[in-house]
Amino acid sequence: MALDDDIALLRRLDFFDVFENDQLRLMLFAADRRVLRPHETLFMRGEAADEGYLVQSGLIALLSDDNSVLEQARPGALIGEYALLVPSERPTIAVAREATSLIVLPRKLIQRLLTEYPDVAFALRQKLAERADRFSNALAQIAKISG
Questions:
Q1: 27 contacts 107 by C-beta, under 8 angstroms
Q2: Which of 73-77, 112-116, 130-134 has the lowest average pLDDT?
């Protein structure tokens, strides 16, 4: 996939829309690539999460402990957004359902970019705070309905 195509994939994601194209280009140059064969495991539940994955092509199934499908990540999906910012554990099992290409985005890379571009870090903070507020308000509405 061409670099412009990868930038376009990132651009579709809310998380990355605060970055300029040049910053995304830097990110992609420093990122790793990984190809999975069908049925190959990307990660297991409980493993340390220190990177996110952008699906370039293929299909990743996110599974529960009993192997039921919780979600499917198709091209353009970001797996592990939370892991891009803070240490955490993988909440699911991730398995390729077909040959899959991924862009691997290490937390250290994202943190370095946010350190070098504090205006981007501030904009991302605002975006994530607004998202958390919407989530909290939705939960409050559900609590009113069921309470």
A1: no
A2: 130-134
H/E stretch holding 70 reads strand 69-73
Residue 66's alpha-carbon distances to 2, 37, 63, 69, in angstroms, are 38, 22, 8, 9
Give me 13's structure tokens.
């994601």
Give me the percent of the chain exceeding a pLDDT of 70. 98
Q: How many CA atoms lie within 13 A of 133 on its CB side?
A: 6
* DSSP type of residue 103: E
Q: Are 94 and 41 in contact (CB under 8 A)?
A: yes
Q: Around 56, how many Cα atoms within 13 Å sit in the side-chain half-sphere?
A: 21
Query: In 3D, which of 48, 33, 43, 26 has the Cα closest to residue 109?
Result: 26
The model scores a pTM over 0.90: no
Number of structural domains the chain divides into: 1
CATH value at residue 45: 2.60.120.10
Residue 71 has pLDDT above 80, yes or no: yes
- The domain of 138 spans 3-146
Tell me the one-letter amino acid at 21.
Answer: N
